[in-house]
Structure formats: structure tokens, C-alpha cells
Amino acid sequence: MKIFEGSFGVDSSDRSEMIDITSQVQGVVSKSGIACGDAVIYCPHTTAAITINENADSDVVYDILSTLAELIPHKRAGYRHCEGNSDAHCKSSLIGCSEQVLIKGGKLNLGTWQGIFFCEFDGPRNRKVLVQVRGQ
Ligand code: ZN
């Protein structure tokens, strides 16, 4: 089994944002030369996340972000963390900091409507995404 590690930067431009990173992840997979295996997409940040969801209709992203904002308000009496970004930490843990995608024929084996998203919850910032590709 071969292991290939890659990474790329993501520059967010809003406090909360979902950025489609499918093509960048596919770029790492292509560079790895691995045809069959899997890829782990990992976000090394405590106020951001990685998720897979629909990338065809941008209203889905809007609805996800607005639902998260309603569930976990930016300001709330009772937050203790002094940085004022407790909501972003909570959203990061709720969504999770990684995803795993199968690779078939050198391509991410995603569903027709699926895309991989970097979720920013405390931007704008310069972020990093790590990708480990494993297989043969
Ligand atoms: Zn914080």
C-alpha cells in the first residue's frame, strides 16, 4: 500500500462560509498516482470543519449555514471562552474535522450531487487542508 500526503491553502472571505474544495482534493489524489484506495481530508483547525454535501444548488449551503447559526448563536449568555468564538468551536465539533472518500479509477468516488466542503466558522482567515491518500 502506498501513502501520499498533500495539502493546500483555503482563504475564507466571510465569518461563516462553505467553500467547495472538491477540485483541490481531486488534484492531490491525481498527483498521488493512486488508482484504488481512499483519501482522508483533514482540517487542522478548531473553528473550521470538513463536510460532504450537495454542491449543485448553492441554496443547500445557505440553508446549512443558516440552520447552524440558528442552532448555535454567535453570541449567547453563558459562553465562557474569552475569544468570543465559542459558536465556531461548537460548529467545528458538530460537523467534524475530517471526511473519508473512496477512490476508484484515480477519481474521488463521490455521488452525482456531492462535493467536499471546507467549512469556515470564524473567518475570514487563511486556512490549511491536509489530504492523505492511501491505496495502490
Ligand atoms: Zn476560540
For the structure shown, list the relevant keywords.
single chain; 136 residues; alpha+beta; three-stranded antiparallel β-sheet; 39% strand; binds zinc ion
Give a list of the ligands.
Answer: zinc ion
**What string gives the helices and strands in order?**
EEHEEHHEEEE
How would you classify the helix and strand content by structural class? alpha+beta
Question: What is the CA-atom radius of gyration, in angstroms?
Answer: 16 Å
Percent of residues in helices comes to 25-40%
Please state the overall shape, judged from the principal axes of the Cα atoms: elongated
Query: What is the strand content?
Result: 35-45%
User: How far is the first residue's CA from the last residue's CA?
Assistant: 6 Å
User: Which blocks of ≥5 consecutive residues have pLDDT under 50?
Assistant: none
Count of distinct strands: 8
How can the largest sheet be summarized?
Answer: 5 strands, antiparallel
Biggest sheet: strands side by side, in what order? 1-8-3-5-6
Total count of helical runs of at least 4 residues = 3
Mean pLDDT: 98
Summarize the structure in short.
The protein is α+β, with helices and mostly antiparallel strands.
Can you describe what's shown?
By secondary structure, this protein is of the alpha+beta class. The chain is 26% helix and 39% strand. It is built from three helices and eight strands; from the N terminus they run ββαββααββββ. The protein has helices at 22-32, 58-71, 86-95, and strands spanning 2-11, 17-20, 37-42, 48-54, 98-104, 107-108, 114-120, 126-135. The strands form two sheets. A five-stranded antiparallel beta sheet has the order 1-8-3-5-6, covered by helices on one side. A three-stranded antiparallel beta sheet has the order 2-7-4, with helices on both faces. A hairpin with a 2-residue loop joins β5 and β6 (107-108). It is elongated. The chain starts with a strand and ends with a strand. The mean pLDDT is 98. It binds zinc ion (ZN). Residues 81, 83, 85, 89 line the site of zinc ion (ZN).
